[in-house]
Amino acid sequence: MKTYRIGVIGLGQRIAHVLAAMREVGWSLKVAGQVDPAPVGAQILAAAGIAGGPSFATPAEVLAQGPFDLVMVGTPNHLHFEHINLALDAGFPVFAEKPIVRTQAESLALASRLTQAAGPPLYIGLVMRSMPIVREVIARVDSGELGEIVSIDATEHLGPEHGGYLARNWRRRAQWGGSYLLDKVCHDFDIFGRIAGARPAKVASFGGRRIFTAERAAASRTWDDGEPAYVVPDPGWMGANDAFQSDMDVTDHQTAMVEYENRVRLSFHANSHVGLTERRWYVAGTEGTLIADLVRNRLMVRRALSRQKPERIDYGGRTADAHNGADQAMARDLLASLQDGAPFPVTPFEGLEAGLTVMAIDEAMTSGEMLDCRPMWARYDAAMKRS
Ligand SMILES: NC(=O)c1ccc[n+]([C@@H]2O[C@H](COP(=O)([O-])OP(=O)(O)OC[C@H]3O[C@@H](n4cnc5c(N)ncnc54)[C@H](O)[C@@H]3O)[C@@H](O)[C@H]2O)c1
Q1: CATH superfamily, with its number, for domain 131-385
Q2: What is the pTM of this model?
Q3: Probe residue for ligand 1, chosen from 13, 17, 71, 126 as the CB with the greatest number of ligand atoms within 8 Å
């Protein structure tokens, strides 16, 4: 196998984990240049036995070291638009972390660019698309086994340490992360759109900050076994010292209702400080029902008129990072795409539409009104026609 020359813009925890997974599944790779003022992922990369490669002061200087077989963008979300554009301008294949971009204006501008003259491929790290359990969910829906999809409910509930990390890391500020839902569950809304087979028509949402607030600064910070809580050692780039007393301006819990254009209805509930963690999709069709438990990596399916035991598939492979082997699966998909031209499981346009869906949900939450999404999709479609 050839050795892939990789350029990195933003060597944080995520890109380090993805590079480690690529190595683990058999990529031969070399980081031939990287830019990051304080690479949070350096130790993870070193632990995986991968050299960080020469570092440069700007993305332009890294890109000048080309040709690269892949440029990987893992900067905080507000920088994705700039860095993806620079890497595409340089003409190299790009892997960019989700959310693809942070704002509606950036989404329209990128959609416009991507529909113009063909450029290098752009792969988005919507890693759940590569998970065997998620592929099976999509296959079951597509097979018609569930009949017509009628309604969905879904959750993503994080434990206190994870929530406390989000409250201290750059994700706590909308200017960097976008929003709690945009950063955390654009994955899920990408899949919901795929399951529904339509775009959202109307959205409503309620949410706020009632957990990581200064008023709760005196709340217990000790686990019941005596271990200290909320003590992530390194909150990373622009990190804050304390989860309860920072300048956080995104929500720490949020609910959303979505009606898709084809009348599929969805409710969603996210909380970042729970005693019972959960990431679960409940998909109800006219003929059957499916529950995907993404934390335990288990799928359960039964026909509506069946009195037999439900079919249960346990995908196993649970890992401490809760990714359950998804990174390795995505690393294989990426290699198959670069090496053999195999289609990657998600397109940049699906990434843009997932992002726009979540942005509409956040807009509805801010306004306190139900939002009609049609004007947003009209702007998006117009952007793709512009050349
Ligand atoms: N697909 C997934 O499951 C998943 C999981 C985690 C994170 N992510 C995404 O990956 C991206 C990075 O997240 P992370 O958790 O690695 O964050 P991180 O804080 O660990 O890493 C971000 C890195 O970007 C660097 N950086 C900041 N400004 C920069 C600049 N101007 N130029 C170059 N580097 C710069 C920081 O120094 C840091 O090392 C985000 O977009 C995030 O949403 C995706």
Answers
A1: Dihydrodipicolinate Reductase; domain 2 (3.30.360.10)
A2: 0.97
A3: 13
